[in-house]
Protein backbone atom coordinates (compact mmCIF):
# COMPACT_ATOMS: atom_id res chain seq x y z
CA UNK A 1 0.00 0.00 0.00
CA UNK A 2 1.17 3.52 -0.81
CA UNK A 3 0.62 6.05 1.98
CA UNK A 4 1.06 9.81 2.28
CA UNK A 5 3.45 11.34 4.82
CA UNK A 6 4.23 15.07 4.82
CA UNK A 7 4.11 15.55 1.06
CA UNK A 8 5.67 12.19 0.11
CA UNK A 9 3.94 9.12 -1.34
CA UNK A 10 5.70 6.07 0.11
CA UNK A 11 5.27 2.32 0.55
CA UNK A 12 3.74 1.91 4.03
CA UNK A 13 6.84 0.21 5.48
CA UNK A 14 8.94 3.25 4.56
CA UNK A 15 6.65 5.77 6.26
CA UNK A 16 7.99 6.53 9.74
CA UNK A 17 6.92 9.01 12.41
CA UNK A 18 9.04 10.20 15.33
CA UNK A 19 8.42 8.72 18.79
CA UNK A 20 8.36 12.39 19.88
CA UNK A 21 5.36 13.17 17.70
CA UNK A 22 2.81 15.02 19.82
CA UNK A 23 0.03 12.94 18.33
CA UNK A 24 1.68 9.89 19.91
CA UNK A 25 2.76 11.53 23.20
CA UNK A 26 -0.26 13.76 23.92
CA UNK A 27 -3.00 12.76 21.49
CA UNK A 28 -2.39 16.29 20.18
CA UNK A 29 -4.01 15.77 16.80
CA UNK A 30 -7.07 15.71 14.58
CA UNK A 31 -8.38 13.10 12.16
CA UNK A 32 -10.93 12.60 9.40
CA UNK A 33 -12.36 9.52 7.75
CA UNK A 34 -13.87 9.85 4.27
CA UNK A 35 -15.71 7.08 2.42
CA UNK A 36 -14.83 5.99 -1.12
CA UNK A 37 -17.43 4.53 -3.47
CA UNK A 38 -16.65 3.57 -7.07
CA UNK A 39 -13.24 5.17 -6.61
CA UNK A 40 -14.68 8.55 -5.59
CA UNK A 41 -14.68 10.55 -2.35
CA UNK A 42 -18.03 10.89 -0.56
CA UNK A 43 -18.97 14.19 1.15
CA UNK A 44 -15.38 15.38 0.69
CA UNK A 45 -16.16 19.10 1.02
CA UNK A 46 -17.93 18.51 4.36
CA UNK A 47 -14.95 16.54 5.72
CA UNK A 48 -12.47 19.20 4.60
CA UNK A 49 -14.55 21.96 6.21
CA UNK A 50 -14.69 20.03 9.50
CA UNK A 51 -10.95 19.29 9.32
CA UNK A 52 -10.16 22.99 8.93
CA UNK A 53 -12.44 23.83 11.84
CA UNK A 54 -10.98 21.15 14.16
CA UNK A 55 -7.40 22.25 13.38
CA UNK A 56 -8.33 25.89 13.97
CA UNK A 57 -10.00 25.05 17.30
CA UNK A 58 -6.75 23.53 18.65
CA UNK A 59 -4.70 26.50 17.42
CA UNK A 60 -2.97 24.49 14.70
CA UNK A 61 -2.43 25.09 11.00
CA UNK A 62 -2.64 22.72 8.05
CA UNK A 63 0.71 22.45 6.24
CA UNK A 64 -1.05 22.26 2.83
CA UNK A 65 -4.36 23.50 1.43
CA UNK A 66 -7.47 21.34 1.52
CA UNK A 67 -7.34 21.27 -2.32
CA UNK A 68 -3.90 19.68 -2.04
CA UNK A 69 -5.23 17.23 0.56
CA UNK A 70 -8.08 16.18 -1.71
CA UNK A 71 -5.64 15.77 -4.62
CA UNK A 72 -3.42 13.57 -2.41
CA UNK A 73 -6.43 11.48 -1.32
CA UNK A 74 -7.40 10.97 -4.96
CA UNK A 75 -3.85 9.93 -5.84
CA UNK A 76 -3.86 7.36 -2.99
CA UNK A 77 -7.19 5.99 -4.22
CA UNK A 78 -5.73 5.50 -7.70
CA UNK A 79 -2.33 4.16 -6.59
CA UNK A 80 -3.95 1.64 -4.24
CA UNK A 81 -6.78 0.85 -6.66
CA UNK A 82 -9.51 1.52 -4.09
CA UNK A 83 -12.99 1.08 -5.51
CA UNK A 84 -14.75 1.00 -2.14
CA UNK A 85 -13.31 1.82 1.26
CA UNK A 86 -11.97 4.66 3.37
CA UNK A 87 -9.36 7.37 3.32
CA UNK A 88 -7.98 8.12 6.78
CA UNK A 89 -6.26 11.45 7.44
CA UNK A 90 -4.40 12.45 10.57
CA UNK A 91 -2.91 15.81 11.44
CA UNK A 92 -0.73 16.31 14.51
CA UNK A 93 1.01 19.36 15.86
CA UNK A 94 4.39 17.80 15.08
CA UNK A 95 7.41 16.34 16.87
CA UNK A 96 9.78 17.85 19.46
CA UNK A 97 11.24 16.88 22.82
CA UNK A 98 8.39 16.10 25.21
CA UNK A 99 6.91 19.22 26.77
CA UNK A 100 3.25 20.15 27.31
CA UNK A 101 4.10 23.62 25.97
CA UNK A 102 4.72 23.46 22.24
CA UNK A 103 6.99 25.55 20.02
CA UNK A 104 5.17 27.93 17.71
CA UNK A 105 7.35 27.01 14.72
CA UNK A 106 6.66 23.25 14.86
CA UNK A 107 6.18 21.53 11.51
CA UNK A 108 2.89 19.61 11.67
CA UNK A 109 2.68 15.93 10.74
CA UNK A 110 0.16 14.99 8.06
CA UNK A 111 -0.58 11.36 7.26
CA UNK A 112 -3.11 9.79 4.89
CA UNK A 113 -3.79 6.17 4.02
CA UNK A 114 -6.50 4.14 2.35
CA UNK A 115 -8.34 1.04 3.54
CA UNK A 116 -10.20 -1.18 1.09
CA UNK A 117 -13.54 -2.14 2.65
CA UNK A 118 -17.04 -3.10 1.62
CA UNK A 119 -19.27 -0.26 2.80
CA UNK A 120 -22.46 -0.38 0.80
CA UNK A 121 -23.68 -3.98 0.62
CA UNK A 122 -23.17 -5.06 4.22
CA UNK A 123 -25.28 -7.37 6.38
CA UNK A 124 -26.06 -4.57 8.85
CA UNK A 125 -28.38 -2.88 6.34
CA UNK A 126 -30.73 -5.88 6.35
CA UNK A 127 -30.13 -7.22 9.85
CA UNK A 128 -29.65 -4.02 11.81
CA UNK A 129 -27.10 -3.35 14.53
CA UNK A 130 -27.28 -3.99 18.26
CA UNK A 131 -26.54 -1.06 20.53
CA UNK A 132 -25.29 -1.06 24.12
CA UNK A 133 -25.94 1.93 26.37
CA UNK A 134 -22.80 3.18 28.17
CA UNK A 135 -21.90 6.32 30.15
CA UNK A 136 -20.36 9.14 28.12
CA UNK A 137 -16.92 9.54 29.67
CA UNK A 138 -15.48 12.07 27.22
CA UNK A 139 -14.28 15.66 27.61
CA UNK A 140 -16.28 18.84 26.97
CA UNK A 141 -15.09 19.60 23.41
CA UNK A 142 -16.53 16.66 21.54
CA UNK A 143 -17.14 18.95 18.56
CA UNK A 144 -13.38 18.68 17.84
CA UNK A 145 -12.49 15.49 15.96
CA UNK A 146 -9.54 14.77 18.24
CA UNK A 147 -7.45 11.59 18.08
CA UNK A 148 -7.90 11.19 21.88
CA UNK A 149 -10.28 8.25 21.48
CA UNK A 150 -9.70 6.22 24.65
CA UNK A 151 -13.27 6.75 25.98
CA UNK A 152 -14.65 5.53 22.65
CA UNK A 153 -12.28 2.55 22.59
CA UNK A 154 -13.51 1.56 26.07
CA UNK A 155 -17.15 2.13 25.08
CA UNK A 156 -16.70 -0.18 22.06
CA UNK A 157 -15.03 -2.74 24.30
CA UNK A 158 -18.04 -2.72 26.64
CA UNK A 159 -20.40 -2.98 23.65
CA UNK A 160 -18.50 -5.93 22.20
CA UNK A 161 -18.44 -7.73 25.56
CA UNK A 162 -22.25 -7.43 25.60
CA UNK A 163 -22.50 -8.89 22.09
CA UNK A 164 -23.30 -5.47 20.57
CA UNK A 165 -22.02 -3.60 17.52
CA UNK A 166 -22.05 0.00 18.73
CA UNK A 167 -22.19 1.91 22.01
CA UNK A 168 -24.61 4.80 22.56
CA UNK A 169 -23.19 7.14 25.16
CA UNK A 170 -25.37 8.71 27.82
CA UNK A 171 -25.00 11.91 29.78
CA UNK A 172 -27.59 13.11 32.33
CA UNK A 173 -30.08 10.52 31.07
CA UNK A 174 -29.85 11.62 27.42
CA UNK A 175 -28.05 9.96 24.53
CA UNK A 176 -25.24 12.12 23.19
CA UNK A 177 -24.14 9.98 20.21
CA UNK A 178 -22.60 6.68 19.22
CA UNK A 179 -18.95 5.90 20.01
CA UNK A 180 -18.19 6.46 16.32
CA UNK A 181 -21.53 7.54 14.85
CA UNK A 182 -24.45 9.94 15.15
CA UNK A 183 -27.58 8.56 16.91
CA UNK A 184 -31.20 8.87 15.71
CA UNK A 185 -34.60 7.60 16.74
CA UNK A 186 -37.96 7.77 14.97
CA UNK A 187 -41.05 8.51 17.08
CA UNK A 188 -44.37 6.65 16.80
CA UNK A 189 -45.68 9.47 14.58
CA UNK A 190 -42.70 9.29 12.23
CA UNK A 191 -40.55 12.21 13.41
CA UNK A 192 -36.78 11.80 13.10
CA UNK A 193 -35.06 12.86 16.33
CA UNK A 194 -31.34 13.53 16.70
CA UNK A 195 -29.41 15.75 19.06
CA UNK A 196 -28.58 19.27 17.82
CA UNK A 197 -24.94 20.13 17.22
CA UNK A 198 -23.08 21.62 20.21
CA UNK A 199 -19.85 20.96 22.11
CA UNK A 200 -21.52 17.77 23.41
CA UNK A 201 -21.24 15.86 20.10
CA UNK A 202 -19.17 15.65 16.95
CA UNK A 203 -20.94 17.46 14.09
CA UNK A 204 -21.26 14.44 11.77
CA UNK A 205 -20.72 15.08 8.07
CA UNK A 206 -23.14 12.27 7.22
CA UNK A 207 -25.60 13.79 9.71
CA UNK A 208 -25.42 17.15 7.93
CA UNK A 209 -26.08 15.55 4.54
CA UNK A 210 -28.85 13.24 5.80
CA UNK A 211 -30.78 15.92 7.69
CA UNK A 212 -30.75 18.24 4.69
CA UNK A 213 -32.00 15.46 2.41
CA UNK A 214 -34.69 14.46 4.94
CA UNK A 215 -36.00 18.01 5.16
CA UNK A 216 -35.96 18.44 1.38
CA UNK A 217 -37.97 15.20 1.13
CA UNK A 218 -40.58 16.58 3.54
CA UNK A 219 -39.68 14.32 6.48
CA UNK A 220 -40.01 15.89 9.92
CA UNK A 221 -36.72 16.36 11.77
CA UNK A 222 -36.49 17.35 15.43
CA UNK A 223 -33.03 18.36 16.62
CA UNK A 224 -33.14 17.76 20.37
CA UNK A 225 -31.70 15.40 22.95
CA UNK A 226 -33.62 12.15 23.53
CA UNK A 227 -33.55 10.00 26.64
CA UNK A 228 -32.60 6.34 27.03
CA UNK A 229 -36.27 5.51 27.77
CA UNK A 230 -37.41 7.30 24.60
CA UNK A 231 -34.81 5.40 22.58
CA UNK A 232 -35.86 2.02 23.96
CA UNK A 233 -39.53 2.69 23.19
CA UNK A 234 -38.88 4.32 19.79
CA UNK A 235 -40.49 3.11 16.56
CA UNK A 236 -37.12 2.97 14.78
CA UNK A 237 -33.51 3.82 15.47
CA UNK A 238 -30.51 4.27 13.21
CA UNK A 239 -27.02 5.70 13.06
CA UNK A 240 -24.94 7.57 10.51
CA UNK A 241 -21.21 7.80 9.90
CA UNK A 242 -18.86 8.11 6.95
CA UNK A 243 -17.99 4.42 7.14
CA UNK A 244 -21.58 3.15 7.58
CA UNK A 245 -23.61 5.78 5.69
CA UNK A 246 -27.03 5.09 7.31
CA UNK A 247 -27.66 1.79 9.11
CA UNK A 248 -30.61 0.63 11.19
CA UNK A 249 -30.49 -0.28 14.87
CA UNK A 250 -32.75 -3.16 15.79
CA UNK A 251 -31.94 -3.60 19.45
CA UNK A 252 -30.91 -1.36 22.34
CA UNK A 253 -29.60 -2.98 25.54
CA UNK A 254 -31.10 -6.30 24.42
CA UNK A 255 -34.61 -4.90 23.78
CA UNK A 256 -35.98 -4.86 20.23
CA UNK A 257 -36.55 -1.44 18.65
CA UNK A 258 -40.09 -1.34 17.20
CA UNK A 259 -40.74 -4.79 15.71
CA UNK A 260 -36.99 -5.54 15.69
CA UNK A 261 -36.55 -5.11 11.93
CA UNK A 262 -35.28 -2.13 9.86
CA UNK A 263 -38.12 0.37 9.45
CA UNK A 264 -39.46 2.48 6.56
CA UNK A 265 -37.98 5.82 7.67
CA UNK A 266 -34.51 4.24 7.86
CA UNK A 267 -34.98 2.79 4.37
CA UNK A 268 -36.02 6.18 3.03
CA UNK A 269 -33.04 7.94 4.63
CA UNK A 270 -30.61 5.33 3.33
CA UNK A 271 -31.99 5.55 -0.21
CA UNK A 272 -31.91 9.37 -0.16
CA UNK A 273 -28.37 9.40 1.21
CA UNK A 274 -26.92 6.81 -1.20
CA UNK A 275 -28.43 8.55 -4.21
CA UNK A 276 -27.04 11.93 -3.14
CA UNK A 277 -23.65 10.45 -2.16
CA UNK A 278 -23.15 9.11 -5.69
CA UNK A 279 -24.37 12.35 -7.26
CA UNK A 280 -21.99 14.51 -5.23
CA UNK A 281 -18.95 12.15 -5.16
CA UNK A 282 -15.71 13.59 -6.53
N1 LIG B 1 -19.79 10.91 16.31
C1 LIG B 1 -18.59 10.40 16.63
C2 LIG B 1 -18.15 10.39 18.05
C3 LIG B 1 -17.77 9.86 15.62
O1 LIG B 1 -16.57 9.35 15.93
C4 LIG B 1 -18.23 9.87 14.27
C5 LIG B 1 -17.41 9.32 13.19
O2 LIG B 1 -16.37 8.73 13.38
C6 LIG B 1 -19.49 10.40 14.01
C7 LIG B 1 -20.24 10.93 15.05
C8 LIG B 1 -20.04 10.44 12.62
O3 LIG B 1 -19.42 11.47 11.86
P1 LIG B 1 -19.28 11.37 10.28
O4 LIG B 1 -20.67 11.21 9.75
O5 LIG B 1 -18.68 12.67 9.89
O6 LIG B 1 -18.42 10.19 10.01
TrEMBL record:
Pathway given in the UniProt record: Amino-acid biosynthesis; L-leucine biosynthesis; L-leucine from 3-methyl-2-oxobutanoate: step 4/4; Amino-acid biosynthesis; L-isoleucine biosynthesis; L-isoleucine from 2-oxobutanoate: step 4/4; Amino-acid biosynthesis; L-valine biosynthesis; L-valine from pyruvate: step 4/4
Protein name: Probable branched-chain-amino-acid aminotransferase
Species: Rhizobium oryzicola
InterPro entries named in the record: Aminotrans_IV (IPR001544), Aminotransferase-like (IPR036038), BCAT-like_C (IPR043132), BCAT-like_N (IPR043131), Class-IV_PLP-Dep_Aminotrnsfr (IPR050571)
Alphabetized UniProt keyword annotations: Amino-acid biosynthesis, Branched-chain amino acid biosynthesis
Similarity comment: Belongs to the class-IV pyridoxal-phosphate-dependent aminotransferase family.
EC number: 2.6.1.42
Role played: Acts on leucine, isoleucine and valine.
Catalytic function, reaction form: L-valine + 2-oxoglutarate = 3-methyl-2-oxobutanoate + L-glutamate; L-leucine + 2-oxoglutarate = 4-methyl-2-oxopentanoate + L-glutamate; L-isoleucine + 2-oxoglutarate = (S)-3-methyl-2-oxopentanoate + L-glutamate
One matching Pfam family: Aminotran_4
NCBIfam families in alphabetical order: PRK06680.1
Keyword Ribosomal protein among record annotations: no
Keyword Amino-acid biosynthesis: yes
Amino acid sequence: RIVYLNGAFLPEHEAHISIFDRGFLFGDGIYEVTAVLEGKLIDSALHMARLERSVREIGGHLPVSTDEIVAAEKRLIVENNIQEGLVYLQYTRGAEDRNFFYSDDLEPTLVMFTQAKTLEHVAAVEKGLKVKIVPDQRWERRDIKSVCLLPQVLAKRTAKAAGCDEAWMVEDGFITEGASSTAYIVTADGRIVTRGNSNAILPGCTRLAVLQLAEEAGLVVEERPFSVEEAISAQEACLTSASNFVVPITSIDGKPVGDGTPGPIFKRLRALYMENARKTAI
